[in-house]
Amino acid sequence: MDKELAEHLPLDEADGLIFACLLDGEGGADRIGWEGVESWTPTHPPLWIHVNSSVERVRRWLPTDGGLTEPTSGAMLSSESRPRVFHGSKGFVAILRGINLNPGTEVEDLVSLHMWSDGERLITVREEKLNSTRNLFQKLVTEREGPHTIPQLYVELIDDLTNGIGGIVAEYDDQLDDIEERTERDDPSELRQELGDLRQEVVGLRRFLAPQREALNRLMADPPGWLGERLGLELREIADRTQRHIEEIDVARERALVLKDDIANRLSEQMNRNMYVLSIVAAIFLPLSFITGLLGINVGGMPGVSDGSAFWLTCAMLAVLLGLELIIFRWLKWM
């Protein structure tokens, strides 16, 4: 993490406040603590509060001093992460998902971010760490080049979540290109396992991303009044980009199926070739085995038993028979 950003983020989130800041209207923000949050009024600069929903203090603060109604605070603190948006009596709630980059987790297991805003204040709630919020906090507090208003911050946060998903989709395309390039030279069994894991990730991301598209379409169709026309157009672009990501995921899934069939065909051809070789070998040695087996029976009357050169004559005869078999197989185009 950036050293300057680390100085602004708390070392201990035991109190539930990950960070809070007042926007200066020029792209920067000043960090405040719980005392500043609880004393904030609409006469103060716009406020962004980012909290951890698993902390008891946050769960008590939201429906009381946080000013949210009971149903709204319940939705903000709920472990239900399915993307959705709705108008509350005091603000607008959006529950969206972002890429999970936490250690020991799968990328397709998206992290939920719960957002509430009334245009002057933005409250974001999460359980697991999410890079999008920290990136925006860095732009505001350290770089001083972030959003100027809460509506801009609201849209930019959604935009950053969507960009993260787009990056993962692009990585899937690159991985499929790599697998397709290695199809002719690498072991098909290993490629099939790698492709199966990748396809499972693609399907998982598609399942989680589809509800987000519906939520963004709902937000675009019925945006809060404080969003404004220009930001509404930006939101439309974000929704369109989410739709493109889903279409790209569908294409990636179809490519994975085609590659899976190609690899399966290679495995089948490889098996057929091996079985063909074994069949040819068996066909070659079947007559030879029959003759040697016949000459090896322990009964009286076997020719050449008392002749010292009979063994070498038999080997010569078998060699001639082997040559004739090879000629016949070549003539039949079996070899």
Q: Could you state the CATH homologous superfamily?
A: CorA soluble domain-like
Number of helices: 9
Largest sheet: 7 strands, mixed
Q: What is the straight-line distance between the termini?
A: 64 Å
CATH architecture: 2-Layer Sandwich
Under CATH at level 1, the class stands as Alpha Beta
**Tally of domains:** 1
Number of strands: 7
- The succession of helices and strands, N to C, reads HEEHEHHEEEEHHHHH
Shape, per Cα inertia axes: rod-shaped
Q: How are the SSEs placed, and which strands pair?
A:
Blueprint: H1 3-8, E1 17-23, E2 29-32, H2 34-38, E3 47-52, H3 56-61, H4 70-77, E4 84-87, E5 92-98, E6 111-117, E7 121-126, H5 131-141, H6 150-182, H7 188-221, H8 229-295, H9 310-331
Parallel strand pairs: 3-7
Antiparallel strand pairs: 1-2, 1-3, 4-5, 5-6, 6-7
Helix pairs in contact: 6-7, 6-8, 7-8, 8-9
Pfam families: CorA
Transmembrane segments: 275-297, 309-332
Protein name: Zinc transporter ZntB
What is the compact description of this entry?
This protein has about 325 residues and is α+β, with helices and mostly antiparallel strands. It contains nine helices and seven strands, in the order αββαβααββββααααα.
Characterization of the model:
This protein is α+β, with helices and mostly antiparallel strands. The protein is built from 9 helices and 7 strands. It has a single domain, classed as CorA soluble domain-like (Beta Polymerase, domain 2). 57% of the residues lie in helices and 12% in strands. α6 packs parallel to α8 and α7 packs antiparallel against α8.
